[in-house]
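Pasting as-is:
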Amino acid sequence: MKFKNVLSIIAIGAFAFSCATIRPGQVGVKQRFGKLSENTKSQGLMFYNPFVSKVIRVPTRTINRELTMNLPSKEGLTIASDVSILYRIEAVKVTDVLREIGLNYDQIVTSVFRSAAADICSQFFAKDMHSGERRVIENQIRDLMNERLSPKGFTIEAVLLKSITLPKGLTNSIEQKLEAEQDALRMQFILDQQRKEAERQVIAANAKREVAIIDAQAKAEVIRIEAEAQQKANELLNSSLTPGVLKMKQIEAMLALASSPNAKTIFMDPKNPFMNMMEPLK
């Protein structure tokens, strides 16, 4: 019984030592007598002979490589920046990476970044790294790194330029420029407001002038209508005053005067130039 227990313990130990666990985000490669196997394991258990071989685990998840370096600018200035490089190893090329580069692949990625960053940043001004052009710079560095590292089994997902530190003199110049731009925008806003107010006043003045014109036209139209009405009334009156009517009115006026108790002097036509009417004696 004791002998069987010992054998069981030995068997369990041998199994444990000949089994490697490949976790998610890793690829296992078996190396036997220094030779790498073409067969890889993405996750799970991988069996091997611990006396003649071993299992190398290579991460295939996204790796964040952070470093601090000085970046050159187009005008020859040096810009300090914290950088993050997000990259991963292609699972199907893990064996090639181990065979051609080894486990120190991080140094290769860093070296390629330094070269690509120097090539790209030297095409931009220092102020561009502190503005919206930063995204353009990051993308161009990433594309250039992928051009150089993709054939070797690497994929550069992103290059992030963080904590850009510009030279003090340049920082002051940029701040002064931004202040000047803000002042210009503020002045432009004031001018726009004044122009809008002037336009409003012009519109109001034009409206008043149009109202005055309409009012004058209306008054003139009223006067014209009244004049036409008066003219028509006069025409009607003139047409109604015939010689017979006038003679009748004259006789009525004479009779009214004759009945008056006061003295009268009446001027008539040449045939009857005047007539004196004395108050009758009492």
